[in-house]
Design a protein that fits this description.
By secondary structure, the chain is α+β, with helices and mostly antiparallel strands. The chain has eleven helices and ten strands. Strands 1, 2, 3, 4 and 5 form a five-stranded antiparallel sheet that branches. α5 packs antiparallel against α6.
Amino acid sequence: MSRKLLLFPLLAACVMQAPAQKPPAARKAAPAKASTPAKKSALDKAVMEAYVRHLLVMGTAIKVDVQDPKPSTLPGFFDVAVRASAGPQTQEFLFYVSKDGQKIVQGTVFDVAQNPFKADLDRLKTEGEPSIGTPGASVVLVEFSDYQCPFCAQQAKMLRTNLLSTYPKQVRFYFKDFPLEQIHPWAKPAAIAGRCIFRQNPAAFWEFHDWIYDHQNEITADNLKGKLLEWAKGKEIDALQLSRCMDTKATEADVNRNIAEAKALKVDSTPTLFVNGRRLVGRDWPTLRSVIDYEIEYQKTARNAGEEACCELRPLLPGLSGK
């Protein structure tokens, strides 16, 4: 439109300067060509952000960061991670973007030659974590839990009541900390304390685990230490050493390592349980038992999960049997 507005004054000036000259009758102005809009590309971060906001209903209160494209295992595509955040809470989404930027795929890509849960199995680290069950078991359960979470207390009781009595030799269970600090103010200090106990006496950790979930409703951020030291009396635990460990947060790095692992696995709620890499959230015992039974039979021939296939057999602490 702007081009036409500029051309018309020039034409008028020419006519005014040479009125006697007429343009040939057969000469006609060529029709203006409609401009073709440029194709949008999902490799343009602004375009990708707008598309994802619309797709996932993310308003302006949510900050959206589109990461740089990375090489993908999916031929012809890039991996593009999109991180959404609102205050301290964050969530990451993975998209596959075609190399021409025209197609976006969201989902999981499987390699038929590998265990479908291999990506998560590779991220799960069990060495040196509190465990019960049989070393070398064909089925490994890894739980991310929070001591202040009421649903975690329910699952803890379910697992402690049923798991080893039903599967005395076929399973190994690992406990990992994932305190949700935004909503549970004493969950991380409790996790640090649990790791202090584990360092002193691995067997006593499970007494602590059961006690803290049983007394969850009595504990606050202010009374946690006092109640824990009172509980420790008569146990094979050095109370002075425990107190110092809690005060100096000597085991915080262990807890932070678990938190980072949970985030890498995109765990966003507790309790979250992995059974040979298969993610399970909020399952009752009959459902969980059916999954374990299936894996026991499947691994007899597949042998692509369990400790022999994916996890470390040697504990970090010498002399820890894991039973």
